[in-house]
Amino acid sequence: MENGRRENWLIFLVILTVQCHTIGAWMFNGRPEGGKVGAPYVPKGVQLPDQQFYEFQKVNHFDGSDFRYWKQRYFVNNVTFRAGGPIFIMLGGESEANPAWLVDGAWQQYARDHGAFLVLLEHRYYGESHPVPDLSTPNLQYLSSKQALADIAQFVTYFKKLYIYQYLQNSSVILFGGSYAGSLAAWARSRYPYLIDGAVASSAPMVAMMEFQDYYVGVGEALDNYNTDCSTEIRNATTRMYDWWGQPDKRVLMQKIFRLCDKIDHNALLDLSVFFNNLASNFAGVVQYNNDNREFLGKQGTDLTIKTVCDIMTDESRGDNIQRYADVNSLILDTFGKECLNLRYNKLANSLNHTEWGSVSAKGSRQWLYQTCSEFGWIQSSWSPKQPFSQWFLFPFNYTTDQCISVFPPFIFGGSEVIDNSEQTNRFYGGLSLPISKAVFVNGMMDPWKNAGLTWPGPYSDVIEIILIEGTAHCADMYPPSSKDPPQLAAARSKISKTIGSWLANN
Asked: I need a labelling partner for 177 at 20 to 30 A (CA). Which of 86, 222, 233, 340 fits?
C-alpha cells in the first residue's frame, strides 16, 4: 500500500472471488476473491505459458456502430489434450490472470481425465489487457458482467476457428470459475448454451442483493464452529472498544495498540466505520480462505487459519480481549508487511479516485466498487445482530453507498439506486432460479459466500449438480489436491470430474 499503509480489506463487497481462482491483490475490499498477488510458485523444471492476445475483442458489444477493439489476454496449455477432447476455459475475475493455473490446480486432473485443452481468459478491466485508456468514471461504463459474458462468447467463437487449433472446432467447451468468475461461468452457460456446453461454478454468488447481512453472520458461525468463546470474546471486545471511542485516554491507547496510521478523530463517524470494518475484515479474510491451498499462486497469509486467530482471541495470558483483538490486527499487518492500519475515510475515498492503470486502486478496488454500485450490491454490513464484529450501526450499508456517490460522480449510486441495480441483475440472470442445465455449483460450508450462492437444486435437480463440502471454505475445490485435504473435498473433486464426463458423453 502507499506509504507502507494497509488500506482496508473489506469495504465494498467480497468472494469471488472473485476470484478466489486466478488472481488477486489482497486489499480484500469485500471482494469475493482476495489473496495478495505475488510471483506464482513454479515447480523446478516447469515453465509457465506465454501470454497471447485476442486482438479484436469489442469494447462495447451492445452498440453496432461502435467499432473500437481491444486486445484481450489469454494463456493456453495443450499438454493434456487428446484428439476429440474438450476445451476447458478458466475465466478470470476481479484481478490479474495468473498463468500458474495452466500448470496446477484441481482442473489439471479433470483435464487429464478427459483429454482437455486448457485456456485461461483474463477479464476486461482487471488484468494487464485494458479496453479503455484509464479508469475515469465515463470509461467504466463498459465494465459489466454482461460485457464480460459477451467477451467470453466472442472469444470462444474466435478460438475454435484459429488455424493452428482447427482440431478444436468440434470440441465441447466447459467453463470454470471461482467466486465472481464462477458466477460468470454459470451465467455464460445460461445465456449462451449453444456455445458453452457446461460450467463448473465454485463458490459463486448467484443472487445480487444490495445488502449482504449474512456475510458477517457466516464469518461468526465459522468461528463458533471452532470455539464459541472466540466469537464471544470478539463481541465483548468490540462493545468495549465502542465505549472507548468516546474516552480521550482510551482513544490514545487504541491508537497505539491497533497501530493506527493517524490520530482518532472522535467526531469523524465515517472513520469509526472504517476502523471497525477493517478489524472485522481481519477475521473475514482468514475465515474465507481457511486452510486453503493457494501457495502455488504466490499468495501471502496462507498459513493464517481460524485456529490461529481464535487461539489468540481466547488466550487470556495476552491480556484483556481488546489487547487480543489488537494482537490479531498486528499479526495481519506483519504478515502482509504493513506498518499501520488506516482509519481515515477520506484517505480511503481518495485512494479510490485514482484512475490511472498503474495506481493501487487499479489492482481491482476501484473496478469492484463500480460493479458493487452498478450491478451486484453484496454490501457486507454490520446490520445483523447475529454477527459479533460491532453494533449494527457501525458499518451499515450506507457506509459503502456513500463511497459509490463520492467516487463515481456524476453517476448517482445511492442506496435506492444500488437496490434497483441489484434487482435488475437478478431479473436479467434469474437469481437463484436462473434457467440452466449442465452446471455444477460447489460451495464450502464454512464459506460466508455460500449465503448468496445456489445451495439447493430447486426445480433443476435433474440437470445440475449441487455439491456442498463440509469443513471447507471459499473455492477449496479449485486448488491443487493436498495430503491435508479432508476426504469430503477429494470426493467432491471426483464427483466434478465424473459429472463433466457425463456431459461430454452426451454431447
From this structure: 222
